[in-house]
Write a structure and sequence with these properties.
The chain has 70 residues and is mainly alpha-helical. The chain is built from 3 helices and 2 strands, in the order H-E-E-H-H.
């Protein structure tokens, strides 16, 4: 049994790209954002809805714990 992981990865990538607008819309209408924090690297990621809920301009403020609690 052989699996072509390159083509499988491409299919999953396409599916993720197709699902992203649906997730963004669902977060918007439910007023729920999402975020991630890589503690080892101290890197943060916020969804568009997190920025909107917090009233923060994503072009001016990078996601961080400090920005969240400010």
């Amino acid at each position: 049994f052989f699996v072509d992981y390159q083509s499988t990865t491409g299919i999953y990538t396409l599916a993720l790209h197709a699902a992203l607008p649906i997730l963004i819309h669902a977060q918007r209408i439910s007023k729920i954002g999402s975020w991630e924090w890589d503690m080892e690297r101290d890197e943060h990621w916020w969804s568009q809805e997190c920025y909107r809920i917090l009233g923060i301009d994503p072009q001016r403020v990078s996601p961080s714990q400090r920005a969240c609690w400010s």
